[in-house]
Amino acid sequence: MLIGILLLSFVATALQRITGLGFAMLTAPFAVVALGTHEGIMLITALAVIASLFMLPGMWRDINWSRVAWIGIPATLSIVPAAWLGAHIDGAIIYLLVGVLVIIGLSAALFIQGSSEPVTHRGAQLLTGIGAGAGSVLAGIGGPAMTIFGVLSRWPVASFAASLQPMWVMIASATLAGRSWFMGSTLPELTWWMWLFAIVGIAVGMWAGQRALGKVKDRVVFGIVIVLAMIGAVLSVVTGISQLV
């Protein structure tokens, strides 16, 4: 099962290189089932940092640093109270709440997308950051909040994908610290060759995603982003239900 998760990181990295997100949303639910909530989220979060660091140099010129600051900083700051809250609430309930809220929020965003002006104000960016940070530390998925803002703001795909990478480095690093300090989470004890296997898989996945760039239309890419976010939300609900049962 663990090897399967490491292999899945290859696919997730390729998708993240194209869309900007998807790594944690695809891999976290499986890692939680295989390793438990604490070690599963810690592993995927650590791999997410590596994946985003690999991608940063090639995407640097498209990064919107203003949005990185207005979304990434609130996301990082929200992790401390969210981690404290997570230490006092049943993990299954957290997964259910996160999943249901994302499904409702994303559905609403899609419904109003074509009937309103783009939503780009600072308040929306702050709320996006808080949602992404809380979702990351509580359930290992911060991408849906970003997707909702991406839909409402009609963020150009290239800038959206690039700008998320420094945000993921910030959010994932803070998540590792927050979960370790407040929730007692630890990384699983992997052998050196498993870490090497994961890093190579991430590098190859990034190369595959890079090769696919320009061959997929922006509308299709954002469609994939929306589907990934919805899959992440549904898997979060399923994970919560399975833990309750």
UniProtKB/TrEMBL annotation:
Name under which the protein is recorded: Probable membrane transporter protein
Keywords on record: Cell membrane, Membrane, Transmembrane, Transmembrane helix
GO cellular component terms listed in the entry, alphabetical order: plasma membrane
Location of the protein in the cell: Cell membrane; Membrane
Membrane topology recorded in Swiss-Prot or TrEMBL: Multi-pass membrane protein
Pfam families: TauE
Family: Belongs to the 4-toluene sulfonate uptake permease (TSUP) (TC 2.A.102) family.
InterPro entries named among the record's database cross-references: TM_pro_TauE-like (IPR002781)
Bilayer-spanning residue ranges: 30-56, 68-87, 93-112, 124-151, 190-208, 220-241
Organism, as annotated: Enteractinococcus helveticum
Recorded superkingdom: Bacteria
